[in-house]
Amino acid sequence: MHKSATAEVLLTDAQHLGGDRYAVAARWHRDRFIEGGGLVDRDDLVDSDALVDSDALAVPLDGRTLDPVLLAETARQAAIHLSHRFHDIPLGHPFVLGEISVELDETLPALTDAVLETHCRRAAEHPRRACLELDATVRAAGREAGRARVRWEAMEPRRYALLRTRGATASGPAEPGADGAVALSPALLGLRQDRDVLLAADAGRSGRWWLRLDPGHPVLFDHPSDHIPGMALVEAFRQAAGLTAVARGAVAPDRVRDVSALTVEFTSFGEPDLPVAITVEPAGTAGAGGTAEPGGTAGPRGMGAPRGMGAPEDVAEPVRATEPREPGKPTEPGKPGEPCGGPAALLLTATQGDRTLAQARIRCGTTGRARRRTGIAC
């Protein structure tokens, strides 16, 4: 799973069911992706009468539900594990993340076990490259709760080193504004610790934040990295989307971390020593961030199709499946007709200098059946 700490490993087993079908078992030791990273005693949490977060988020622990970004991390770990165990990818090969997405039909119970009913295959259009994709249906507490998708490429170390050398020199000049960024209170984002806040507000422009990372963070930097981790951008996108949804009155402040669907497509490595801007606008509207066509060429105008995190745009090719879906296979969040690509979704972009690092489409608010009951969505 490319994790150093045992507490950060979310998988317990995997079985090959035949063809490209696998069952992956997961156990969630905690209910959030980054807050309080590390092993949590499940019995202590379930039996506790304590409250979580700040006074603005006084939610009893027995009412907590699973963080969808933790589900995304679970799917990412499943992709890595299946690659090594069943697809003959040698240990030590770097993985380049191209896309990760989750979509929930209903809230997932926290601190529980789950099974990802998975299709994992090599992309047909890249027979000489280890480009893979995973589509999973998530089952927890005896019911189907949603879907997850991951696209990635496993690289031979020498090729990876070459791409990193080229990418590190292609960022362009840094954008102004990062130096005057304003720190955000953890309570504003439904968090308790300052290290978990990944955004600082741009003092001169609304709808733009600057990425702030603690290199000692036990979850985001569980092991050394020569680039900004992809899951750090996923969490930063979620935080920016939540702030926007609250500011627009689409969700209540105590639901700032709720996400029902997200899709993040990565296009380039992020260098850890250069500022990264996160901007937001309603999905499907024109502007500085351009448009995103779900399932097709994604990103600002002039940006090519997703090429995988860290792959320079003049080298790598899109990694997408072309074969038709089999009946019963999970659909992809963000595809036409799916909630993540609808008009209520938010479009966010991460840039470093003149380069786009990643783009996200996120639907905030209560998930699935609960959303249909309450009408809360952004």
TrEMBL record:
Species the sequence originates in: Streptomyces olindensis
Alphabetized InterPro entries for the sequence: AfsA_hotdog_dom
Biased composition (Gly residues): 286-307
A-factor biosynthesis hotdog domain residues: 55-152, 192-290
Region ranges (Disordered): 284-343
Name of the molecule in the record: AfsA-related hotdog domain-containing protein
Domain of life: Bacteria
Compositional bias of kind Basic and acidic residues: 320-329
